[in-house]
Amino acid sequence: MTDDAAPPTRLDREIDQSKPSIARVYDYLLGGKDNYLVDQEIGDHFKVNLPGSVAIAFTSRQALIRGVRDMARAGMWQFIDFGSGLPTADNVHQVAKRYAADARVVYVDNDPIVLAHGRALLATDKNTTVIQADARDPKSIRDHPDVVRLIDFDQPVGVIFSSILHHFNDDEDPAAVVRFWNDQIPSGSHVLITHFRSGHNPETTAAEQKLQATFGRGRWRDTEEIRVLFGDLEVLEPDIVPSAQWRPDVAAGDAASVGSSGRELTVWEQLIVTGLARKP
C-alpha cells in the first residue's frame, strides 16, 4: 500500500488516510507495506531524528516470538493477542502451531485495516480469527462470539499484551484491563507483557513527547510500575528485563542474543522490556 502507482482499494477508500495509526506505524518500522504516507512520516521521525529507536520495534517483536514459543512449550494451546497489529513474519498462530498443531488464537485490534488483512490471511484457518475491538473494553471482548467459540477458559490460556499497554494512559487504568483477564483465566495460564520502560533520559522524553503529540497516548513506565500491571501473578525468570535480553535464543544467532554476547545494549534497546507471568 505504499506504492503510489497502485490503484486505491475499497479498504483504502474506507480508511481515513489523513490520520496515522499505531498499528500501521509499527508495520512501517518493521519493514511492512500496509501503511500510508501519514504513517511513514511518523516512522521516519523515529528513524531520522531518533536514530536507533527502531530497535524498540524489532526487539519487542522478537521477544513476542520467543514468548509464544515458551508458552506453547509450557502447555498453552490457546492464545489471545491484544493489539496484535498487522500480519508479519512469525505471527502468533504460526509460532504456536509449531508446538501445538491445534492451537487456537484470537487476535484483537481496533484498526480496521488489521481486521481486513487478518481475515484475508486466516480465511481458511478455523482455529484462528481476528476481531476488531478496543482492549480497554475487555468485557465486550470476553463476550465476543469468536472468543466464546475458540477460547475455553477452563483450560490454560496465553494472554499477550505485546507493545500495547504503554499506549494506555494512566487514567485508562491498564492494570485493571490485565486484572480482568487474570480473573478470567484458570491456574497455569500465562500472561506476557512487553512495555516501554523509562530510562529517565532525553531519549525517553523525546519518544514519549512524539507519541503523545501524535496519538494522545504513549506512556513510559519504570520497572515497578510495569510489575504492578501483572497484579498477583508470579513473574517468571528472568523477571522483567530488556526485551533483547529476555530468554535470548543464542543458538539461533538472532537479535535477541545481544544481551549475552558481551555487547552492551544501546539506550533504545534498554527502553523496551518483557516479562512473562504465571497464574498460580
UniProtKB/TrEMBL annotation:
Q: Name one GO molecular function term.
A: methyltransferase activity
Pfam families from the entry?
Answer: Methyltransf_19 (PF04672)
Task: Could you list this entry's UniProt keywords, alphabetically sorted.
Answer: Methyltransferase, Transferase
- Annotated transmembrane regions: none
Q: Tell me which Gene Ontology terms the entry assigns under biological process.
A: methylation
Does the UniProt entry include the keyword Nucleotide-binding?
A: no
Extract the InterPro entries matched here.
SAM-dependent_MTases_sf, SAM_dep_MeTrfase_SAV2177_type
Please verify whether the record's keywords include Oxidoreductase. no
Protein name from the UniProt record: SAM-dependent methyltransferase
